[in-house]
Amino acid sequence: MKRLVCCLFAVSTVALFAQVPDTPAPGTTIIQMPRKSPNTEPSVPLGEEVPVYDPGSEIISWGGKHWNIANQRVFQARFEKYLNAPEQTDADNAEYQKIIRDILELLSPQNATNVKLYQAYVLLFRAAAHDADGGICNAVANAVATAWQAQLNQNQLVMTCEELKKAMQSEQSKALVYNSAQERNVTTSGSSKKGSSGSSGPAVSTHEMRQTFVLKEAAAFQAQIVALQAKREVSALQARIQFQALMLQLFLQRRFQHVVMTCHLYRQLFNEGDSSIKVEGQTKEFFTKDLGMPPTVSTLLSLANEAMRDVREGVNSYLFLSERNEMESATKRLSESFLVGEYMPEIRTLPREKKRLALLYSQKGNRLVNALSVKDYGQAEELIKDMEILAKDFDPTKPRAAIETAKTLSAMHLAKARNAAIAGNNQIVEDALKQAAAIWPRNPSLTEMSGTIFGQSDLQQKALADFDQLLSQGNIRQIFNDKLRFIAAAATNPERQDKLKKVLEDMQTIEASIARAQEFARRGDAAGAWESVERAAKQFPDDVKINQLRGSYSSEAAGFVESLRTAQRLENQGQNGSGLAWYLKAQRHYPLSDFAKEGIERIAKKILPAS
Amino acid sequence: MPRRASSKLHPAWFVAVALLAAAAIAGGYLLMTKVNDPYRTINALDVLSYLENANSLRGNTYRVSGTVWNSLGWSPSAGRLFAIEVGAGKPGDLLPLLVPAALNHVNLQKGQRFVFEVEVVEGGILRVKSLRKE
User: Fold this and answer.
1) Range(s) of the domain holding residue A591
2) What is the domain range of residue B100?
3) Which residues from chain B sit within 8 angstroms of residue A584, using beta carbons?
4) Please, is A281 exposed, middle or buried when counting C-beta atoms within 10 Å of its C-beta (0-12, 13-18, 19+)?
5) What total number of domains does chain A contain?
6) Cβ–Cβ < 8 Å for A375, A439
7) Is residue B4 in a domain?
8) How many angstroms separate the CA of residue A604 from the nearest CA in chain B?
9) Model confidence over B63-114: pLDDT tens digits?
């Protein structure tokens, strides 16, 4: 039974391709089979139409190509279209189904009479007038008419053969008469020859000639009879094969009611001889190997009946399971039933409101598959939650396991990237982020971490650029004021770390000088304050704050500063005497002056070199 | 009875004689002092000019009177370097004077007043040629 369902599934699936000229969906695996040479083509017209389905690999071989049914784009599209379509319960469809039922009733074996056959034939035209039929009954009626015409022709050929036989027999009788007459003539001429010897040689008699003519006529009639008998056999075989082709075509189209109809018609139209279907190749293997039955009309009829029963059970199962909120199984049963019996009344009359549940579940299922295929695990998780609510028999084990695995791996790579970022290893950061993105492209943590890392990288680069610029300008005070930013930026750059360390030490010296100067100033010692900032200014002449304080304190200790600067100027001019006098003046002004003391000692050493 | 002529001197005469005598003593002292000052012919140093540009005075000899303010250094070969406070104002200007080793026998102590004969040598340095305690 399961094998039969598989075969039906295969047949039905391929019928989708047969009826809808879709090109293979992207990603569908199509393996081109090597074409057979012309001399290996089957001798009968049917043979390669029925597909072969391998349940193990889920691959259908049909028309020289292999199709992976895991790719369900075509089926999904048709199934969703069906689920959205309204039920066909209008009067037109009801009337059509009634006509079909009447036809099947008239053609049933227990009612098989010529009158009922003719009544059914008439109803075929009425059924063909409905859209739901798609003109199939018209084709069946034409096939019936063709069969009848073939039978009529055969009857005429039989009558002709009978006439020819009669004519041949007449000629044969004539030949016998002429033969007897010739024999009598031969006897008479024998006795006369004895009396008249020396007459001329033997001559053909008239009877002999007539006998020859009638024998030729008889042979000609015989040849015509043989030719007509051959023509009659060919005509009968042709009509039978055409009808069988129609039956197989309807079977492939999953028009199972029409298959039953044609099987009954076939039996009544071709009631003499066997009912085997002339097929070769894969079609024959489908019947003999896959189904284990010979390709006969009875096999086809039983397959069609079995398919219709399966569809009815599938629809009933769907209704039962959907009422129990088991939409996983319900949707599967309905999709299987739809696949097999798309044109069955049970499928067509299913109310749209009841189909909507399957549609909702199917759409979410498809979205889940898509989300998993594009590794959108966040969306997949939400869909799993929705589907668990929607269908209590939904098994989220596999998708959830895939999601958790991906999340764990992605988190591991992100942790690696974070550690590498802290260590300043950009290459490892880049590689780890790439791997994390490959596993879970839409990971929110990935976006956040990338933004943080690259943002920090930008800030770091900008901070380092600012540091270099300020250092080149000698503006170490600005570096000092923003030291926290530069310390963080230079953390991974040893060269800049050394420079920054020097800057901070210098600023420490400057700040200490300023603090000391401010303390002198607070005590009213403007000269001491000036001297403190002046000493720092000699080392850091570009510091703004020092220069500001220099200006301020020099005005407060103008006399001392003037004396000291004059002394320095004269010393620089080589006037040690007057320079020393000014240093002494400055020292007198501010006895604690280091500059004055140093200047005095310096010049004294020049004057007293050995001291 | 005839009037008897007065024999007493007017007191003004005594005052005048006393003043003249004091003036004579003072003049004599001053004269004696002037005659005995050996630097009386040497020009006094123009301190302001020296402070402005000592090199312009180089090669000249001047007289400097002042008080020893501080010792700035000593060298056995070059001598001693002192800071001398000169001038009338308080505080006066301080001038460095190099007392060469040849004058090492003269003690110069802080607060003592001296008169120096100085020469402006190279670098505008005031080198003492001779000195005399005041």
Assistant:
1) 557-611
2) 47-133
3) 83, 94-96
4) middle
5) 3
6) yes
7) no
8) 7
9) 999 999 999 999 888 899 999 999 876 788 899 999 999 998 988 899 999 9
